[in-house]
Design brief:
Blueprint lengths: L16 H16 L4 H6 L5 E8 L3 E2 L3 H11 L4 E4 L6 E2 L4 E8 H31 L6 E3 L9 H10 L13 E3 L1 H6 L15 E5 L2 H9 L4 E5 L3 H11 L5 E5 L7 H5 L5 E3 L2 H4 L6 E5 L1
């Protein structure tokens, strides 16, 4: 069983290249099918072109290297020149990259590349807004497992680019005892069955449950849908204990500063990855 080394995770943002290559292969197959009928019919064979990838609004750029991989997967001879860096804030009409080579190859890669760029930049940009909103509090913003199936590793990468932290990636990384576990099992007596090397988190919904969970000294206690007053009291009760406190449930950009002010260590925000706001990006042949 693989368990998290520390929590929440803020390792240097990086992408699993094998996983990325596999995802791009599937995405291109999904998009292309048996071939691009339009380009084969309209674009002269061997026709060369230059294209610009352009920001149509201001956002935090994420996914530029993934986009390059898409173009190279379609045609290794394509030239891809980055005009902005990963994690850079770009403005409206900023040229993000230039692509040169066979026109039909550029057009075949366009949609998958833009889809990835738009999605990841949107996640990174939203995360950065949440992170900025709670400065100067020491609270960490994390994502959740509310991700698009198959794209979790990309979305969580984008959260880190945006300045956030990752909650667990998979169920095998740490133990998180939630309310539904407690409905089907008297879980507390069996916490000792969890491998000692694994982080343990327990979800609670009121102060009575919080006091019970605190006795078992987990690594983290999740304060789920509790009031601000209850969270402040939980922070007071926790004083002197190494247990981290995570706020979750009903938290958005409008109220997150109030939750951070309670003194919790972590705020998990499902909206970072499950309520998509893709960045507006286009490709233009020039």
């Amino acid at each position: 069983m693989g368990c998290v080394k520390y929590f929440p995770s803020r390792e240097k943002p990086s992408l699993d290249q094998k996983e990325l290559a596999s995802l791009i292969k599937k995405a291109l197959a999904e998009d292309t099918g048996r071939g691009d009928i339009t380009s084969k019919s309209v674009v002269p064979a061997g026709k060369k072109a230059k294209a610009e990838i352009i920001a149509r609004e201001s956002f935090l750029l994420c996914g530029i290297d993934a986009a390059k991989k898409v173009f190279k997967a379609v045609d290794p001879s394509l030239e891809f020149k980055k005009m902005a860096k990963e994690g850079e804030r770009v403005g409206n009409n900023k040229i993000i990259a230039e692509v040169k080579g066979k026109a039909s190859s550029i057009l075949a890669a366009e949609r998958v590349a833009l889809n990835l760029l738009s999605l990841l930049s949107g996640v990174a940009t939203k995360t950065s807004r949440f992170v900025r909103e709670i400065k100067p509090y020491r609270t960490k913003i994390t994502d959740t497992r509310k991700t698009i199936p198959g794209l979790r590793f990309l979305q969580k990468y984008a959260v880190r680019i945006g300045g956030g932290y990752n909650h667990r990636m998979r169920l095998d990384e740490m133990a998180l005892v939630k309310d539904n576990h407690l409905k089907v099992s008297e879980i507390y007596p069996f916490l000792k069955k969890i491998p000692a090397r694994c982080k343990v988190e327990i979800e609670v919904q009121n102060l009575e449950e919080f006091r019970t969970a605190l006795k078992y000294e987990p690594d983290v206690i999740m304060l789920d849908n509790m009031t601000l007053k209850e969270m402040k009291e939980a922070v007071r009760i926790r004083a002197g204990s190494p247990v981290q406190l995570e706020a979750s449930g009903g938290i958005n950009i409008g109220n997150i500063k109030k939750y951070a002010s309670t003194g919790v260590d972590i705020i998990s925000v499902g909206e970072l990855t499950d309520s998509l706001e893709s960045a507006d990006i286009s490709l233009e042949i020039v």
